[in-house]
Write a structure and sequence with these properties.
globular, mainly alpha, single chain
Length: about 230
C-alpha cells in the first residue's frame, strides 16, 4: 500500500492546486457564474480523487469511514471547540459570498484532510511509525501555509504556520485514535468557513487562536494519543 499512498499524495496535491485553474477557466473563458464554477470544479476534483482511491478497503484505510474507539465521542467532541478561535471573524469580519465560501471551505477541508492525514500519514507510517507520521505530516502541513507569504504580513504567516502545525497534530491524533478523518474534515471546513470572513488579520485573535491550538495539540498528543 506504500506506493499507493505516495502516488495518491502527489496526485491529490496536483488536483487540489488545479481546482482554482479549472474554476478560472469556467469563469474567465466560459463565462460561468462564480457559484457554478466553484461547485463544479470542486466536484470534479473530488470525483477524480475518490475514483482513484478505489475500493472500500482503501477508503477505510485512509480514514474515510465511521470512527471507532472506546471514547470517540469525547475525542471528537473536543474537536468542535477548535473553530471557536475563528468566531471573532464571523462577528467582525468582512461581507462575503457565503455560498462560495462554504463550497470552497468544504472542498479545502476534504482535500487537505485526505492529503495530509489520510494519504501522507499512511505513507510516513508505512516507512516509519505512527508518532513520526503525526509529527512529520503536521510539520509539512504547517510549512505548506508559507504560500501565504506576500499576501499576509510575515508575523501573521508565522502564526499561521504554528497554528497549522498544532492543528495538524490534533487532526492526525484523532485519525489514529478513531481510524477516521470524517470529523476532521467537518471541523476543518468550519474553521475555514469562519476564517473566510477575514478582511484583515486581527493580531490578538491570531495570537489567542494559535495559543489555544498549541494547547489542544499538547493535550491530544500527550493525553489522548497514549490513552
Amino acid at each position: 500500500m506504500r506506493r499507493k499512498s505516495i502516488i495518491l499524495t502527489i496526485v491529490a496535491v496536483i488536483l487540489y492546486l488545479s481546482q482554482s485553474f479549472i474554476r478560472g477557466i469556467l469563469i474567465g473563458t466560459l463565462n460561468e457564474n462564480e457559484i457554478f464554477a466553484e461547485l463544479s470544479s470542486a466536484f470534479l476534483v473530488l470525483l477524480i480523487i475518490f475514483f482513484l482511491i478505489g475500493k472500500k478497503e482503501r477508503r477505510s484505510y485512509f480514514g474515510i469511514r465511521i470512527w471507532e474507539c472506546d471514547n470517540c465521542f469525547k475525542i471528537n467532541g473536543l474537536l468542535f471547540l477548535i473553530p471557536l478561535v475563528n468566531l471573532p471573524y464571523l462577528l467582525f469580519g468582512a461581507r462575503i459570498n457565503i455560498i462560495v465560501a462554504v463550497i470552497s471551505s468544504i472542498f479545502v477541508g476534504i482535500m487537505e484532510e485526505l492529503i495530509f492525514r489520510g494519504f501522507l500519514c499512511r505513507f510516513i507510517e508505512e516507512k516509519s511509525c505512527e508518532n513520526r507520521a503525526i509529527m512529520i505530516s503536521s510539520l509539512i502541513f504547517g510549512v505548506f501555509h508559507l504560500v501565504n507569504i506576500g499576501s499576509d504580513p510575515y508575523l501573521y504567516v508565522l502564526l499561521q504556520v504554528l497554528y497549522a502545525f498544532a492543528i495538524g497534530i490534533v487532526f492526525a491524533t484523532v485519525f489514529y485514535k478513531t481510524k477516521s478523518i470524517l470529523n476532521c474534515m467537518i471541523v476543518h471546513s468550519i474553521v475555514d468557513i469562519l476564517g473566510s470572513f477575514e478582511a484583515e488579520p486581527i493580531f490578538a485573535v491570531e495570537i489567542i487562536g494559535t495559543m489555544i491550538c498549541v494547547l489542544c495539540a499538547i493535550y491530544y498528543y500527550l493525553f489522548e494519543r497514549f490513552n
